[in-house]
Specification:
Layout: E1 2-8, E2 17-22, E3 25-31, H1 46-60, H2 68-83, E4 96-104, E5 107-113, E6 117-122, E7 127-131, H3 134-141, H4 145-149, E8 172-177, E9 181-187, H5 189-196, H6 203-212, H7 214-227, E10 241-247
Helix pairs in contact: 1-2, 6-7
Length: 248
């Protein structure tokens, strides 16, 4: 399997995305850039959390007999144990979205938690986007940041990897026969801004562009963000943008 990884931080030296490959497992995590008041119980950075969780998930998912959800739950517990004695996690802690895939026999297994995406292109050219949209549904119905935060990792709200192992049970999981798969792309929402914010791509054209030249995709993305009129700009003009591509 041919694998490429490209990550471009919004701020040099402060990348809160994490991507990696170990054996038959690949992961891409996007640290949630929450206001400090919502993670005030923890002294650790968002980058520390996403990078630590990525490392533990890669290790936990090595055994193909361990379901990906169980591997994520174990990794969440591992990272919690690293800092629960010095941090008041109930008062707020860092969190991250998760995308992971694993080749097992003739299939590619996947797990997606929160709004990062897995883009699967079939050999017939069709592209399937796997994204957990519950956070968008909450944002659309709540008016304040406090109200949105109150629905994080609770029934009826949205779920991310944080310190609660039960979040892993809420992930979207599935498997795809490798014989049907042309490519798989694990992308942070900094990449899918090309679709959702800028409208420069649909899923199929983005996958094609990422396969040909991901560096150019990010260059065009940054240019598009800078060109947005003030009234159309998101809270963060630039976001960390990460893509991990697998070609079976």
């Amino acid at each position: 399997m041919h694998i490429t990884l490209l990550s471009d931080p919004a701020v040099p030296g402060a990348n809160e995305d994490a991507g990696g490959v170990l054996g038959e497992v690949a992961v891409m995590l996007d640290g949630a850039g929450l206001p400090q008041r919502f993670r005030a119980g923890c002294r650790h950075s968002v980058a520390w959390y996403s990078h630590s969780l990525a490392a533990h998930l890669l290790t936990r998912a090595q055994d193909p007999a361990t379901e990906l959800g169980a591997a994520l739950a174990g990794a969440i517990a591992d990272v919690r144990e690293l800092h629960e004695q010095e941090c008041d996690l109930a008062a707020g802690s860092p969190s991250a979205t998760v995308v992971t895939v694993r080749r097992v026999g003739e299939h590619l297994e996947h797990l997606v938690l929160s709004d990062s995406s897995l883009l699967l292109r079939g050999r017939d050219g069709e592209v399937v986007r796997v994204t957990d949209l519950r956070i968008d549904e909450v944002v659309a119905t709540e008016r304040t940041a406090e109200a949105i935060e109150a629905r994080r990792n609770v029934p009826g709200g949205f779920w991310v990897a944080r310190h609660e192992e039960e979040a892993a049970e809420q992930a979207l999981v599935g498997r795809t026969p490798l014989a049907m798969l042309a490519s798989a792309h694990l992308v942070s929402d900094g990449i899918t801004r090309a679709i959702d914010l800028l409208g420069r791509h649909d899923e199929a054209s983005l996958v094609q562009a990422l396969t040909v030249d991901p560096v150019e995709v990010i260059a065009e993305l940054r240019a598009g963000e800078r060109a947005l009129p003030p009234q159309a700009r998101p809270r963060k003009l630039h976001d960390d943008a990460t893509v991990l591509t697998l070609l079976p």
